[in-house]
Amino acid sequence: MDVMESLSLKGKVALVTGGAGQYGRQIVAALAEAGATTFIAARGLAKLEAVAAEERGRGYDVRALALDLDDQASIDAMHCAVMEQAGRCDVLVNNAVTRDPDAVWGGDMIAYDRSLRINASALFYVTELFSRDMRARRAGSIINIGSMMGMVGVELANYAGTQMHARPSPVYFYEKGGMVNFTRWAASIVGVDNVRVNCISPGGFFNHQPEAFVEAYSARTQLGRMANATDLKGAVVFLASDASSYITGANIPVDGGYTAK
To answer: How far apart, in Å, are the Cα atoms of 182 and each of 86, 143, 150?
Structure first.
């Protein structure tokens, strides 16, 4: 197969949980631009509808669905909607995440449990649910969106002179670190049926953070900057497509070299 043809997602169906956030927006655009019919699902349906409408205005087939990852029945309903409308799902991108402001160091277990239910329990459930059809067809790619924070500890110097780390939380680091090894585990389980599972661990996204943080963080990377609104697109399409057909169980840092230092 021609290498450029192998990168095409034409004729494929993709689902992105989330899709209106900093990284989700470019993931949706990348999959759509590569040719996939792309479903986006989250609680904020109005925001998703706006994203879908914008992509349809560019000529792409993007559809929004309601999804509450805290509710198993909502997950089941979203899965049924994808199957009814498209008949299958070739690419699953586990992108949605919750950041509970109360799940802080020294907080109570209830806040931790709320975060883990969505970022861990729902991740397991969604992945297994959508992998059933993929395994039956012996084809599919599952992409988990982690974070470089799941690969390292906290660099406290990045936050000097800001209030950004006033309430540190262990949960996000724990969950994203666990996502990397869940990727390996799931790849082992579904690989026997030719379904691939990989992880992308993005670095920090520039979102007009305090200047002191941006300067410190950028200096900590090898490329000298934070991530922008297109940096994830190539990695997502690569892992979703047949160009990566012999890659599974991998974690790819897209972090400007932050974790390589």
So the answer is: 28, 11, 12
> Residue 179 belongs to a domain with what CATH number?
3.40.50.720
Q: Which residues pair with 164 in a beta bridge?
A: none
Kindly state whether residue 211 falls inside one of the protein's structural domains.
no
Total domains in the fold of the chain: 1
Tens of pLDDT, residues 13-25:
999 999 898 899 9
The label of the residue with tokens 């879908």 reads 52
Task: Divide the 261 residues of the chain into consecutive groups of 10 and give the mean pLDDT of each group.
Answer: 93 96 94 98 95 97 97 98 98 95 93 96 98 98 97 92 84 96 98 98 95 95 97 98 98 97 87
Rounded to whole angstroms, how far apart are CA atoms 99 and 101?
A: 6
Asked if residue 128 is part of any domain, the answer here is yes
Q: Where are the alpha helices (DSSP H) in the chain?
A: 3-6, 22-33, 45-57, 72-86, 109-116, 122-137, 171-190, 211-220, 233-240
Helix and strand numbers (H, E) in the chain are 9, 7
User: Does 13 map to a domain?
Assistant: yes
